[in-house]
Amino acid sequence: MGTLVLVEHVSLDGVMQAPAAADEDVRGGFARGGWALAGNDEVMGAELGKRMGGDGALLLGRRTYEQFYGVWPKQTDGNPYTEALNRVTKYVVSRTLRELPWENSVLVEDVGEVAGIKRRQGLTVLGSGELSGELMRRGLVDGLMLMIHPVVLGSGRRLFGGAEVPLRLVGEVTSTTGVLIATYEKEEA
């Protein structure tokens, strides 16, 4: 049985919308896109690399998949993320996509299929806020790696909503930019 871990950038007030780019996700008039970029440093890169370096697969929602596909396969600067993201199996949960152009991508048409995939291998969810919320509500989340940025945004889509998931802190690292990288595991009932 694999585990399912959410890897998310969040503000102190729980916002996870559009951490990487101004135009990444403007739903609801959100105008603070790119808010997490100032927090990136080598410490965060190393912690993300540890998470990405495993044998599991990625599980992505449609928006995150399209956003990642628009950037990562085109990178030619020799960064380690492009190779890892191209190589890994990417399960994409979508009711609207029919074709997945990025290598090693597999369409998952119903979120209900995720439990079966999880039984076969570990899964890491990057971003994918709506999918993450649904996975939490279904009790499929085994852990979280939160990069908690020292900023309050005041508005935007939040990661936690409508799900109760008891967690325990199992690790923490603070980046040079003040981002708390906290790792949690699900508390067994």
Description:
It is a single chain. The chain has 5 helices and 8 strands, in the order βαβααββαβαβββ. Helices cover 24% and strands 25% of the residues. The mean pLDDT is 91. The longest helix is centred in the N-terminal third of the chain and has 11 residues, at 42-52. 31% of the residues are buried. It has 189 residues and is an alpha/beta fold. A hairpin with a 5-residue loop joins β7 and β8 (180-186). The protein has an 8-stranded mixed β-sheet, sandwiched between helices.
Report the C-alpha radius of gyration, rounded.
16 Å
Strand line-up across the major sheet: 4-3-2-5-1-6-8-7
CA-CA gap between termini: 18 Å
- Report mean pLDDT, rounded to a whole number: 91
Total number of strands? 8
Percent of sequence in beta strands: 15-25%
The shape, in one word, is globular
Helix share bin:
10-25%
Poorly predicted ranges:
none
Q: Summed up, what is this model?
A:
Helices cover 24% and strands 25% of the residues. The protein has 189 residues and is of the alpha/beta class. The longest helix is centred in the first third of the chain and has 11 residues, at 42-52.
SSE diagram, text form:
Layout: E1 4-11, H1 42-52, E2 57-61, H2 62-71, H3 80-87, E3 90-93, E4 105-108, H4 114-120, E5 123-126, H5 129-137, E6 143-149, E7 167-174, E8 180-186
Parallel strand pairs: 1-5, 1-6, 2-3, 2-5, 3-4
Antiparallel strand pairs: 6-8, 7-8
